[in-house]
Amino acid sequence: MGKNREEVEVVNNNVKLICYRDPVPGTTKFNYPFYYASVYDLLNPKTAIDQSIRQYVVLRRKPLQDAYDTFNFLSLCEHPNILKPYGFWEDNDNKGFIAFPRVEGTLDNLPTDELFSVEIDANKVTWLKGFSPSGMQIIRDIVSSVHYVNERYPQAGTSSSGSAIPPLTMFPLELASHKILYEKIPTGEYKIFLGDISTTNHWPKTMKKIEDLKRHNWNCLGKYISTIMAGHKPNTELIHLVDVLIKETVRFEDILWEPALWGSKIKMRFVREIVWCLENDKTGGRKSTLSKLSPLGLQDCITKLGLNYNEAKSLLSSVMLLRNKIEQIGVAKALLEKLVLDSKPAYMIKLIEEIRKLNWIGEPYELRESIRPQSQDQDFMRLMVVLRLIWWFLGVCGVLTWNSCLSDSDVYIVCQT
């Protein structure tokens, strides 16, 4: 151990870890904070570095077994938003040190307007009108990480023997702003990381099976989002997302359908997909189905936009209004969707609920692509390529009218229908 009060030195296998006493901002709330550190090989002078360059962070002085458990758990994870350990050291006091690539801080340090679209009214009440672009990506990345970990737990009725990817030890996740780390990349966006687990909370007695553990992790995410919204007025979509995450019956498939995670582009594309289903239904049964359902209640928005349209008839009328009138006004999608959302905060929640019941469209393609790690979607992407080739071939042969601008989501609808 080093004698300098400003740092701790640990040497294992001729590799020196210098752990400084300046913590990563926000991590002092950890039971075991992260500190900045340097690493270099004592046997290779060429790898020696300027010790003033603190290019690593260290989860410092955990009890040895906890450190081993954390290191092994994180080493097995292959996910872009889960910190990958660089190395492991132990000292003479039976403590463990885990080094990771450098990060800048925790989400505790980010202001509210980095995570949410914020508006302050005349009464100085702060309204959260949804996630900001950076906040939405952060939450999507956390959702992706939780889903990844849930899928890596041992599955009931299966054996890990012979598997190329061993299952993760069943440690529950604990999500909080001070436990989620970030790095700000050159584009100005934030890349987040889960970098610590609670090894002392191993398989609580309240969890009788794997599904209980998965639900616990989703519930923790719901509580985390609720915590960062505290003291403000969230919109209907944010409240609905939290309600879904804290349910006893929460499933990843349901989370993919939460409009708070979609953004204006995916919402408008969803409307186009509904219209595609209607236009390619030769029997007219789908139009008949929507014509019997109640409208979304967008009349106030219609009036504000100065449109001459009667939306009071049915859900079919609402969908065609969104597709053929509102979307084609020429206003940027984000601003346009905001106008609709302000007018009718639950409009997309209602539309999604009705369309899901009809089972016309599979899970949102774009959102699934942005949330699931690419390695999990290789089979699906191969299927998409094959479907596009088949669609093209049938068009060339004259069997179908081929549209050269056919999108991936269009092919996805064909797959589902």
Automatic annotation (TrEMBL):
The chain crosses the membrane at residues 380-402. Keywords: Membrane, Transmembrane, Transmembrane helix. This is Uncharacterized protein. The lineage of its organism: Eukaryota, Viridiplantae, Streptophyta, Embryophyta, Tracheophyta.
